Amino acid sequence: MKTPQDLSALANLHQDSADAEVRTWLADASSRNILTFLSGLLVGKYERHLPVATAALNVRLAEDAAKQADRLEKQMLELVGIAAEQERLALKLDGQTETIIRLTKKLNRLTIWLVILTVALVLFEVMHFIESRQIAPRGAQIPHQVNQEP
Questions:
Q1: What is the pLDDT of residues 84-105, one digit of tens each?
Q2: Which of 36, 53, 76, 143 is disulfide-compatible with 4, CB 3.0–4.6 A?
Q3: What 3 state SS string does the chain have?
Q4: Between 18 and 37, whose confidence is greater?
């Protein structure tokens, strides 16, 4: 396969036999190779390949731009999908956060009631303990003791 420099040198020879080869090469060449070919052409009275090469370069650039636009469109659609999913997840997270806040408040109230009940139960037990340990007057029975006969 010939390089762009080889083909521009061939085109500069101004031979009619080179026309078909140059046109065939230009149909499949990349935009970078066409640009290299154009820069190797001599400008003068035999610049017959210049318009064809320029047109081929314009076509390649347009094709490249179309491919990039397609890729950009696909990426934009992916981003829109990702953004929609993020929005859905954010709403779900907001709902879960509200639920956690509500449950935390209920847990706080329950804890307060448990502390109050625990304090009441401890006070009740302390009073019962003090009551059961008081020294009874002589001859009186302590309420929770059973007389045992020897």
A1: 999 999 999 999 999 999 999 9
A2: 36
A3: CCCHHHHHHHHHCCCCHHHHHHHHHHHHCCHHHHHHHHHHCCCCCCCCHHHHHHHHHHHHHHHHHHHHHHHHHHHHHHHHHHHHHHHHHHHHHHHHHHHHHHHHHHHHHHHHHHHHHHHHHHHHHHHHHHHHHCCCCCCCCCCCCCCCCC
A4: 37
